[in-house]
Amino acid sequence: xxxxxxxxxxxxxxxxSFAPVYGIILGxxxxxxxxxxxxxxxxxxxxxxxxxxxxxxxxxxxLIFGQLADRAVVVxxxxxxxxxxxxxxxxxxxxRVMKMLGIQKLFVSNAAGGLNPDFxxxxxxxxxxxxxxxxxxxxxxxxxxxxxxxxxxMSEVYDAAMIQQARQIAIVNGLPVKTGVYVSVPGPMLxxxxxxxxxxxxxxxxxxxxxxxxxxxxxxxxxxxxxxSVITDMCVPGRIKKVILLDILEAAAQAEPSMTFLIKxxxxxxxxxxxxxM
Length: 278
Ligand code: HPA
Hints:
By secondary structure, the chain is of the alpha/beta class. The protein has a single domain, classed as Rossmann fold (3-Layer(aba) Sandwich). It is 29% helix and 24% strand. It has helices spanning 2-14, 88-100, 160-173, 193-201, 212-220, 245-268; strands spanning 22-26, 38-44, 62-68, 71-77, 105-114, 124-132, 177-184, 206-208, 225-234. Strands 5-8-7-6-9 form a five-stranded mixed β-barrel, surrounded by four helices. A hairpin with a 2-residue loop joins β3 and β4 (71-77). It is globular, with a radius of gyration of 18 Å. It starts with a helix and ends in a 10-residue tail after the last helix. The protein binds hypoxanthine (HPA). Residues 111-113, 190-191, 207-209, 232-233, 235, 243, 248 line the site of hypoxanthine (HPA). Its EC number is 2.4.2.1.
């Protein structure tokens, strides 16, 4: 808790008490949303006390503070994955800090493999529910009562009103938006054909290696959550190809304008713009 407080205090001081209303996590290949932000502060993760330090990446991620569609937002450009060797507590540390900075809702994006045969590469899938197949989760251990309860409810993890609004935005604007269940696996290897079949049989529509730990931490703190997957490759019998990171990035890039549009429109629907100081 002290580490969370240290990081929060540092950010409050570095941003002149910038008060973000919404938090956003950008997934693999989906960083371009940042181009739509009127950036006020950009703080590298490695300057923030106790933030997980990037191991392999050549450049560390950044926490970006600014206005998106005239709403005050904080954006994680780059996230932490369990497969990188971080503990689950480290993976969700930034989410807890964003909540302590005052965010009222969390928006998450990721790249995922499509298990539902009705999907196509570069579709968006609004996440309606999830299955956690990560080997552990961020709430294991002594409960941090200041953050949330010991046994948080998971009966409605993804905010029903925002799912409905996203559907509406998709229909009105003709966006290729599907809905479905996301299963989170540890990775970092992709799945075998038998594993894809298994994941489909247990009820998942898309598979990826992130998001669920962050969402669990967010729901522990009772933050309303919205999450969307970009389907970067198809994992259905007959349509499985060798997965190459470059192809995943290309499919994500193709879907990026729709994803950015969807999140921006959705954020606009969440409340009035912040008053600009004269
Ligand atoms: N499996 C797991 N994670 C992924 C995939 C996949 O097929 N595609 C993108 N992220």
